[in-house]
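[recover] target loaded
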């Protein structure tokens, strides 16, 4: 039984390393990032995409993070276009800016 403890400890630490915990916290922080009212779409998308790449998130998580923080009036339009990539989101957000007035207009 004692021989199993070191192998269990090694497996546990490999699975739940400090790096994984820190990365999990980073993901949570990234999902809280919001586009500023005066922030340009491209700037927001670039900022979040950069954070996602640092956290080594895949493209589908990057898309979710971008959509989560996109300004509400843009997000509504972009979601109707079913974006699959950050480039899709950028294209649709720019289109939304052109065809939809801002809520305070």
């Amino acid at each position: 039984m004692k021989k199993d403890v070191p192998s269990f400890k090694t497996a546990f630490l490999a699975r739940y390393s400090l790096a994984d915990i820190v990365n999990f916290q980073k993901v949570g922080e990234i999902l809280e990032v919001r586009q500023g009212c005066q922030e340009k779409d491209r700037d927001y998308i670039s900022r979040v995409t950069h954070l996602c790449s640092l956290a080594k998130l895949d493209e589908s998580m990057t898309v979710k993070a971008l959509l989560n923080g996109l300004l509400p009036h843009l997000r509504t339009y972009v979601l109707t276009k079913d974006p699959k990539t950050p480039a899709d989101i950028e294209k649709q957000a720019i289109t939304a800016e052109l065809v939809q007035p801002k809520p305070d207009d």
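[recover] notes: Residues 4-99 form a domain with the Non-ribosomal Peptide Synthetase Peptidyl Carrier Protein; Chain A fold (CATH 1.10.1200).
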